[in-house]
């Protein structure tokens, strides 16, 4: 792993901080954190610290919402058959669960469809259109996909099936759907562009509720699933997503549906409450594993389970899939790293693009993320199956994958996604040309300078600043995520307090105990994952600087604050 630069976030002049701190009656440290998040007025701070559902935007600000809501109402009034279609990942399967469950509870004649990752691939599928025609469906609602599927939607239209697209991926030319709900449409005035795919589906249902005078409380009971999509899809945790996730986390804590409860039991989850980190690292991988290893339908089956017996049965299968996913992920990562180290191209390249026949398509996105972590370059991992290359891409800050892939569009069969993550496919004979052009575009975008990985930190403080009251106030900034990450702090010139050591398999992790000041005025414990190499230096009492977040640690019923280390370096 490369040594990371430490970069402070934007700072503000002391008078600005003092004035706002006085108006809000909070500390200057907390005020500085607010300013860094773009919150510089009393009213904005009030909404930030007290998010509630009344602050949600009017769904009819979204382009085509009127058309979509009216078409759904016609389907309901005429008893038409509705098919709810979604991608096989967390965002797609939670979206399908929300929309399908809501419609089913209304007594609507509906069914759901999750494509097979291997037979049908990403997005709306031709196979689904043919099946829907045979089964005489009148309306298809696509969730977390559809924006790039003009041909399939045109086929559905030719067969007399209307399609409503609910998507959040970057659009090009709009598909010929009956209605296209996507806040990223260039002509869409909707204020919040950062919704998840599930979030767009939620706004669709919210629009229908408002127009029909239906009680929205029957929709808000699905905010737990929407929160899982928000955490898993790495969308901004400001604006509407912050409101929705705040309410959804309350549901995840107080009213767990059987499928979620079963997953937490398999994970041996024992904390008193769930946060977004738990959603991302405990629930999301298990839901994803269904689509990666077996079928995304399994994830929906688990999430719609109404009793603990059936939920536990499906959850056991999901857990097995997740364990299998881990094994495959580890093996393919090792093979991918071996390819990189053996190929001279990557010595000077600005990207990492690897392929292999038979790599499990369900984990290539995870492997691409591992390669980014290892080399700090945009990475693409492709699997060759039945004469076609298909896979996933992951990026670094400053490189918009969707834009770069667009410049390689003539070499690709299909592509789509976001700035930081995308999917693509191509013919195997195009691989060499694609790898070279992709790398040249990245190189040009970076002005021929290889970037160095970095960690942004919010503020420099002292250990003495970390009190129970300070931590309590920090928790008011939750839920944390993109655009509102958990604050990272810098403390300088710390020394070993006597209990520092390397722990874990191969001594990979760092168990830390440090103090500051000649009189050891403040001592704290911490944990640093993958930082075990620092144990020896710290034990020699060499002064160090650390970057960290502050978290609550509960062990054998005892609660304490500890440092979660992000990086360590020797003090100057």
List the strand order in the largest sheet: 3-2-4-5-6
Helix-strand makeup class: alpha/beta
Largest sheet: 5 strands, parallel
User: What is the second-level CATH architecture of the largest domain?
Assistant: Alpha-Beta Complex
What's the domain count?
A: 3
β content, as a range? Answer: 15-25%
Task: Count the E strands.
Answer: 19
CATH class of the largest domain: Alpha Beta
What is the general shape?
globular
Could you tell me the CATH topology label of the largest domain.
Answer: inorganic pyrophosphatase (n-terminal core)
Low-confidence stretches: none
Span between termini: 22 Å
Number of DSSP helices?
21
Oligomeric form of this entry?
A: single chain
Keywords:
Diaminopimelate Epimerase, Chain A, domain 1; alpha/beta; 5-stranded parallel sheet; single chain; OB fold (Dihydrolipoamide Acetyltransferase, E2P); 21 helices; 19 strands; globular; inorganic pyrophosphatase (n-terminal core)
Task: Explain what you see.
- The chain is an alpha/beta fold.
- It folds into three domains: 5-50 and 455-570, OB fold (Dihydrolipoamide Acetyltransferase, E2P) (Beta Barrel); 59-239, inorganic pyrophosphatase (n-terminal core) (Alpha-Beta Complex), CATH 3.90.1640.30; 343-445, Diaminopimelate Epimerase, Chain A, domain 1.
- It is 42% helix and 20% strand.
- The protein is built from 21 helices and 19 strands.
- It has helices spanning 14-24, 28-36, 42-49, 65-78, 90-105, 126-134, 150-158, 197-212, 217-220, 223-232, 239-254, 258-266, 276-294, 296-303, 308-342, 345-348, 364-375, 401-406, 431-445, 468-474, 535-539; strands at residues 5-8, 82-86, 110-113, 139-143, 162-166, 179-181, 352-357, 379-385, 388-394, 414-417, 421-426, 454-457, 459-460, 489-496, 501-503, 509-516, 522-528, 544-555, 558-570.
- The chain has a five-stranded parallel beta sheet, with helices on both faces.
- Helix 5 (90-105) links the parallel strand 2 and strand 3.
- Helix 1 crosses helix 2 and helix 4 (65-78) crosses helix 8.
- The longest helix has 35 residues, at 308-342.
- The two termini are 22 Å apart.
């Amino acid at each position: 792993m490369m040594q990371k630069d430490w970069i402070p976030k934007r700072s503000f002049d002391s008078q600005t901080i003092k004035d706002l701190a006085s108006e809000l009656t909070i500390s200057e440290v907390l005020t500085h954190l607010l300013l860094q998040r773009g919150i510089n007025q009393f009213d904005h701070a009030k909404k930030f610290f007290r998010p509630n559902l009344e602050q949600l935007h009017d769904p009819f600000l979204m382009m085509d919402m009127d058309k979509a809501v009216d078409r759904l109402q016609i389907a309901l009034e005429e008893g038409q058959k509705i098919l709810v279609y979604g991608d096989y990942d967390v965002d797609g399967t939670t979206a399908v669960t929300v929309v399908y469950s809501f419609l089913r509870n209304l007594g609507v004649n509906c069914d759901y469809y999750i494509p097979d990752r291997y037979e049908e691939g990403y997005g709306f599928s031709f196979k689904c259109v043919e099946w829907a025609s045979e089964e005489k469906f009148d309306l298809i609602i696509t969730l977390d996909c559809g924006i790039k599927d003009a041909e399939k939607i045109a086929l559905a239209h030719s067969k007399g099936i209307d399609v409503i697209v609910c998507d959040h991926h970057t659009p090009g030319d709009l598909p010929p759907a009956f209605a296209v709900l996507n806040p990223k449409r260039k002509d869409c005035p909707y204020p919040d562009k950062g919704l998840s795919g599930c979030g767009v589906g939620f706004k669709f249902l919210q629009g229908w509720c408002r127009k029909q005078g239906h009680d929205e409380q029957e929709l808000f009971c699905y905010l737990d699933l929407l929160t899982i999509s928000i955490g898993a899809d790495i969308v901004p945790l400001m604006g509407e997503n912050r409101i929705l996730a705040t309410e959804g986390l309350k549901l995840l804590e107080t009213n767990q549906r059987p499928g979620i409860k079963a997953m937490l039991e398999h994970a041996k989850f024992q904390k008193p409450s769930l946060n977004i980190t738990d959603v991302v690292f405990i629930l999301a991988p298990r839901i994803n594993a269904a689509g990666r290893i077996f079928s995304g339908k399994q994830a929906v089956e688990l999430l719609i389970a109404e009793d603990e017996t059936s939920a536990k049965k499906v959850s056991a299968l999901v857990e097995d899939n997740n364990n299998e996913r881990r094994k495959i992920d580890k093996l393919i990562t090792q093979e991918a790293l071996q390819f990189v180290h053996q190929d001279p191209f990557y010595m000077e390249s600005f990207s990492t693009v690897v392929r292999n026949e038979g790599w499990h398509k369900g984990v290539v996105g995870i492997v691409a993320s591992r390669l980014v972590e290892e080399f700090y370059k945009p990475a693409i991992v492709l699997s060759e199956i039945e004469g076609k290359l298909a896979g996933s891409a992951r990026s670094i800050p400053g490189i918009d994958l969707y834009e770069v892939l667009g410049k390689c569009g003539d070499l690709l069969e299909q592509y789509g996604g976001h700035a930081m993550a995308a999917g693509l496919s191509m013919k195997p004979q195009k691989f060499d040309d694609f790898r070279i052009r992709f790398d040249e575009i990245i190189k040009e975008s970076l002005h021929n300078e290889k970037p160095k990985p970095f960690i942004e930190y919010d503020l420099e403080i002292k250990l003495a600043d970390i009190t129970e009251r300070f931590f309590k106030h920090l928790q008011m900034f939750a839920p944390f995520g993109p655009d509102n990450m958990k604050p990272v702090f810098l403390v300088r010139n710390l020394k070993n307090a006597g209990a520092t050591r390397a722990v874990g398999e191969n001594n990979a992790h760092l168990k830390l105990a440090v103090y500051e000041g000649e009189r050891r005025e403040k001592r704290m414990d911490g944990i640093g994952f993958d930082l075990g190499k620092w144990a020896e230096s710290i034990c020699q009492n060499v002064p160090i600087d650390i970057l960290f977040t502050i978290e609550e640690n509960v062990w054998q019923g005892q609660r304490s604050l500890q440092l979660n280390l992000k990086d360590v370096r020797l003090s100057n």
